[in-house]
Sequence to fold (120 residues):
Amino acid sequence: MDPLTLRLARGSLVVVWLATALVSLIGGEGVALLASAGVPALWHAPLIISGAALDALLGLAMWHWHRPAVYAVSAAAMAVMTVAATMLLPGLWLDPLGRLLKNLPIAALLFILYRHARSE
Fold:
């Protein structure tokens, strides 16, 4: 993979992780989603804060290190969050903005970056 393609792939995922962390903390959509899924209000803040922290950590790790472990952990975290969201709100797969569907190309990018990092 040429260096520019690699930087664009990594950079786009860093932006996704960091922006998701920020939006989770300042937007109210997370609370609305958890409430519509029937999650008790007592759990809203801890789930949103821990999810945002994980997103931020993954984004920062990906920004600083091109290592297979970073991509593997990111893929695992995304898979867990996708399964949880699917169980709570399966209709998100039909969302016209692709709230869950976007995870498919993200998974592909993570796989490509993982393989590239392993080959170095």
About this structure: The two ends are 11 Å apart (CA to CA). The chain has a mean pLDDT of 95.
